[in-house]
Write a structure and sequence with these properties.
The chain is an alpha+beta fold and 141 residues long. It has one domain: OB fold (Dihydrolipoamide Acetyltransferase, E2P) (Beta Barrel), CATH 2.40.50. The protein has helices at 14-36, 40-49, 98-103, 131-140; strands at residues 53-65, 76-83, 89-96, 109-115, 122-124. The protein has a five-stranded antiparallel beta sheet with strand order 3-2-1-4-5. Strand 2 and strand 3 (89-96) form a beta hairpin. The protein is elongated.
């Protein structure tokens, strides 16, 4: 004896199939677009910082404007130099808020944090950083 199917499958209309394909393509496109927006450079930096950071003192070598930034906070830059644990002198530029930038002059001392596993990756206390990066660092600590 042949048992009847519990739910007989209805054939979908061509319009229904077209709508399903369209939504499928849109979903895949949105997913790929979302992957492209992931800030992999921030993840990479914070991965290096997971192995620890070294705190040192650096010297400001120049104070300048960096040009038009995405927001008014990141237009002011500070060039600084520091010495890593191996004795190599390193130089970097950090975006600063205007209030802090106005207080710094060449020769000013700044607190520098650099990654143990990547001494060229540094930041200074008070620099402008993406909100996501600060949040990620707090989550990983």
């Amino acid at each position: 004896m042949v048992r009847p199917l519990l739910h007989a499958r209805k054939k979908r209309s061509p319009m229904h199939n077209a709508v399903r394909r369209t939504f499928g393509v849109l979903f895949i496109a949105a997913f790929l677009w979302g992957l492209a927006l992931i800030p992999y450079d921030i993840f990479r930096e914070e991965r290096f910082r997971l192995y620890g950071e070294v705190k040192t003192v650096g010297l400001v070598t120049a104070v300048r404007t960096l040009g038009a930034g995405e927001d008014s906070l990141s237009r002011y830059g500070v060039e600084y130099a520091y010495v890593d644990r191996d004795g190599f002198a390193r130089r970097a530029v950090a975006p600063m808020p205007r209030e802090r930038w106005a207080d710094l002059r060449p020769g000013s001392r700044v607190v520098v944090y650099f990654a143990k596993s990547q001494p060229g990756l540094s930041r200074i206390r008070g620099q402008v950083e993406p909100v996501f990066q600060v949040w990620l660092r707090d989550m990983l600590d």
